[in-house]
Amino acid sequence: SSSSSSSWVTDSSIKERESLIFVAKLCEQTERFDDMCTAIRTVIEGNSPLTNEERNIFLVAYKNLIAGRRSSWRVLLNLEHKTDSSDKKHEFIQQFKKKVCAELEEICQEVLSLIDNHLIANTSTDDESYVFYMKMKGDYFRYLAECVSGDRREEVITSSGGAYGDAYERSLNL
User: Fold this and answer.
1) Based on the number of CB atoms within 10 Å of its own CB, is 128 exposed (0-12), middle (13-18) or buried (19 or more)?
2) Taking CA 67 as the corner, what is the angle to CA 30 and CA 164, rounded to the nearest 5 degrees?
3) Cβ neighbours of residue 46 under 8 Å, at least 6 residues apart?
């Protein structure tokens, strides 16, 4: 998981949904997005549908968690292009890029897994939630496409387009 295994959210064994949502909001106010993700992930893993407010907490938590990695990735790409490939610094930049990409991929996979394994199942009659999750799925495949390459990149781009397409089709019911 993208969140620290020693998160105080899990250590404090907060289990009640209402308390977890309060903690998620507290984490947002204090910009503790890793803990915010842990709190909302715990709610999601309970397998009951999310309210609009909870859906937005899910969106905000992971959007903020991944924003820093995406920014780091862009800075590293820029530095890589400005650095001569024979320069020792180029190797360090590439090593760091691998680390950042792995973190980006871990966060994206976590979001995609939560959507596929816990959230979509509750949307058979809820067009609005389905569209929300499929758009989010498209976004996280798109973020993943920013750092993967080759065949994997093509697969991710196709998956992103598929998720956006599914969101659009279902949105026609709204």
Assistant:
1) middle
2) 125
3) 17
CA–CA separation, 85 and 95 (whole Å):
13
For residue 122, which amino acid is it?
N
DSSP state of 149: -
Residue type, 108: C
- For the chain (174 residues), the mean pLDDT of every run of 10, in chain order, is 57 82 97 96 95 97 97 97 95 97 98 97 94 98 97 98 98 96
Neighbours of 98 (CB within 10 A): 11
Enter the tokens of residue 14.
Answer: 């907060």
User: What is residue 6's predicted lDDT score, i.e. its pLDDT?
Assistant: 52
Cβ proximity of 103 and 144 under 8 Å: no
